[in-house]
Each structure stands twice: as C-alpha cells, then as structure tokens.
Amino acid sequence: MHNVIELAKQYKLRIFIPSTIGAFGPDSPRNPTPNVTIQRPRTIYGVSKVHAELLGEYYHHRFGLDFRCLRFPGVISSDPPGGGTTDYAVAVFHEGLLTQKYECYLEPYTRLPMMYIEDCLSALFQFLNTPKELLQRRVYNVTAMSFTPEELFEELKKHVPNLKISYKPDGRQYIAESWPQVFDDSEARRDWGWKHKYNLEKL
User: Fold this and answer.
1) Rounded distance, CA 104 to CA 109, Å?
2) Which of 128, 133, 153, 179 is most buried when burial is the number of CB atoms within 10 A of its CB?
3) In degrees rounded to 5, what are phi and psi of residue 132?
4) Against a cut of 0.90, is the pTM above it?
5) What is the DSSP letter of 183?
C-alpha cells in the first residue's frame, strides 16, 4: 500500500482504493453510520481498510495526490460467494435456488447495508469521473439498501415458495453486530450526484 501510493505521488497518478462497511466497529453509530465518525474496527480486514483511507487522505492533503476511496456495503452479484460476513445474500441465490434450502450463518434480524453489482460499478464509474474540484471528501460511503436475512428470504419466497430457510449463527454474527446497519451516503449524493437503481424488490 505504501509503495503504491508513493509511486502514485511520484508519477502524478490518480489512485482509487476500495473500502468497506468493515472499516467501522462496535463504537461507531450503526443506524445510520455517517461518513465521518469514530471507526475503530475489530477485525484486521477493517483495520487495514482504515489504514488505507488515512494514508490516502494524508497523501492528498500533504502532497496533493488525487486519492479517492469508496466504502462499499455488501455487494450482491452472480459471482460465487467467498465466505464473507455479507455473503449470505449471495449464497442463498446459489445454494437456495439450486437445492430449495439454505442454512444462514447470521441471525434473522441482522440488518446490514447492501448493493447490487450494477449499482456498485455505476457508483465507481461516476465517482472516478467526477471533477476533483467537486469532491469535498476523499472517502465516501455508498449504499443502495439495507435489509435483514429474514427480509431477503421473505422476498425470495415470493418467487421460490418452497424455499426452506434455517439459521445456524457462527463467528460472523459477532462481526456483523459491530458493523453499520444503515449506511448514510448523503454526502456522496450531495457532492457527486450518486443515485442507486436497485432496491430489495428489484434484486
């Protein structure tokens, strides 16, 4: 990370680094989580993201580097799930639709911010093409929706009525309970006109 940012400074390159809802921790306000607030994550994943955010902001303010960063929520796509905390929302489409059953590793009430991949890519494209003069920050929250496993599964059952859901929470439940429930991305909407297209029903 240090070497890449240093090279971007030397060669006057723009640099984008993705961040995440995991950059927040149990001391952060969760509903909603504003763009600027206490973070203090409890996972090395989150700690590394905060480190990247702060390092990029330092290089921007100290050396004028055009550093940009988006904090993404859980991203839902057709790619196979990787086992992350928000990946139940991907796994249920792969496993549940194939076998008509799914065992969720989070409690049914666990609310987390989410985004469909098309909105994710749209936000990235729009952000990177925004003139730097319009950006009041270098790091922005972006999101599209926020739901619980139960809410997602109930929506799926409208299309797959025989879908059987069970719950067996594991260690990812502890992580989820330290993350934002609702992401406040009003600054992205204000500064560079971010608008999402997909909500839970459109998934």
Assistant:
1) 12
2) 179
3) -60, -25
4) yes
5) B
